[in-house]
Amino acid sequence: MQRAFLFFYPPYTGYKHEKSEILVESLGGVGGGILFSVATVLLMTTPVGWVAALVIGAGSVAAGYAGSSIAKNTYNTYFKNTNLTKLTGVNRICH
Amino acid sequence: MSLSTVFEGVDLPGILAGGSFVLVLILIVILAIFLHILHPILARRYDHLLFKKPWFSQAELTLYTAWPLNLIRSIQYMYLFTFPDYLKKRRFKNLDIEIPVSKTTLIISRIYMSLHILLVLIGIVFFVSGAYIYFFVTPYAE
Predict the structure, then answer these.
(1) Number of domains, chain A
(2) CA gap A87, B14 in Å, rounded
């Protein structure tokens, strides 16, 4: 079992590191999207039409992508040795 | 594992990006809970006064009836209570009727709006410091 595990997940990258990366990426994506919408609500001081609503939707997707890649890059640059799944307790739910 | 060991040996952009990321996530959860508690109360009190044609367009009247966009409606009301002079020049033009706002509602909307603006500012810090790391800090050696 242990050998098979090591075969599929080579020791360098590390299964744990990948799990933390996925966690940070998804949280960054959600956070970036919400941040964009939270900022636009403050700017929506005049009635919004359909075109502006579509622009806001596309922008929040772009902000979500930017947030996820920024969060992943920050994690990989500075916090690579931290096991975030263990720190947040996610590893108790998702093995 | 404590917070000090996580941030050990991390320079300023890393502290800014990592710290603001954690703060953003915490604030989003707090604001979401806050808003979901406040929304039914504000909707019951102010929808018949403020959620109308001249101040909201027809598209908005359709869009803001269902979750999650209906929360924008509540945010606009609290925005109006917190910055009445500014909003009466922009969205709520010619608002001649007297809106009954109790002292508690006013304080709660001020707390909400300050947290909201704080979230936006911390988000800007996250994006700027994160983009700086993305483009200018050399990645770890493999």
Answers:
(1) 1
(2) 18
Backbone angles phi, psi at B98, to 5 degrees: -80, 120
The domain of B49 spans: 13-135
Residues of A in contact with B86 (CB under 8 A): 45
A-to-B residue pairs, Cβ atoms closer than 8 angstroms: 104
Question: What is the value of pTM for the model shown?
Answer: 0.84
pLDDT in tens, A80-92: 878 888 888 777 7
- Search chain B and give the residue with CA nearest A49: B59
CB-CB under 8 Å, B139 with A31: no
Tally of structural domains, chain B: 1
Mark yes or no for CB contact B57/A49 under 8 Å.
yes
Backbone angles phi, psi at A83, to 5 degrees: -90, 95
Q: Is residue B141 part of a domain?
A: no
* ipTM of this complex prediction, to 2 decimal places: 0.84
